[in-house]
Amino acid sequence: MKLPYKDITVGTEPELITNPFSGESCLLPPEAVAVYDTIKGCELFQDYTGVRKGLDWFAENFPKEYFILLD
Fold this sequence. Notes:
The protein is mainly alpha-helical and 71 residues long. Helices cover 51% and strands 11% of the residues.
């Protein structure tokens, strides 16, 4: 699976990620966790091009999780 960002660190274990607004959670594989974390970092730095790139990847590769965590 091609990741949307260059040079991101991908862990080795799945992680449970919780939407802070709804309280719903998803177990994500390491690649998806890395992209999710990068999206959140881009939001903090107001890098909306980076956010969009990650959201598009998530919607294509993990649509159910996208709607629970990022929509």
